[in-house]
Specification:
- By secondary structure, the protein is α+β, with helices and mostly antiparallel strands.
- It folds into two domains: about 80 residues, no CATH class; about 120 residues, no CATH class.
- The protein is about 60% helix and about 10% strand.
- It is built from ten helices and four strands; from the N terminus they run ββαβααβααααααα.
- A four-stranded mixed beta sheet has the order 2-1-3-4.
- The longest helix has 18 residues.
- The chain is elongated and about 75 Å long.
Amino acid sequence: MIHQYSNGCLQVCILGVIEPDANGARGLLEAVVKASDCIKVDCNKVVGIMTDGESANTGKQGGLWKLLQDHWKKMLITVWCTCHRSDLAMEAMENVVPELTVWRSNYVALATYFHTSKCRTKALNSVANVGVIAFKAHHDVRFTEHLHNFITAVNKNFQACHAVFKATIDNPEATQDEKAKCSGFQKLWCEGSIQVKIMALMYDIYDIFK
């Protein structure tokens, strides 16, 4: 919710969490009104609302934007969240470039390989010349800032990852399965590979969109 203070300044306010009884846009309206009443929002000072682009929010005839304006009997500045909107553009771009689907699954696999093992993470820290960025769990959320942070971790830890792969392959106590995984990562993420080139490109693109 966009709230205007007496000094003219605007601020985005998070109303809270409400579980409505109704479904669809009517339920969204119920939640907004109840949350506004709970924290005693003066509707006369509310000048706008920000949501994602779902039709239940943005529908011209019966979406939340329209229902809320009717409820408060005033016009509002209605904003489609920039994060959601830019993600739609990113999603459309990725859908028409099939190589990106393969690339994404490969870098998720690389990050997951380290994230799911404290021993591998410890090995990563032990061979790094500088501090490493922790690989976080991957969630299939298209917020480009999240993806940008994900790639940043891969890029920052790149040399350390290769050092771990080599050490594992050379380790006589490592299992054949573990050596095969590291060998696969080594070949896939070698300098000048298509994976690395796409990573450099997508890092810049995500940096713009985030």
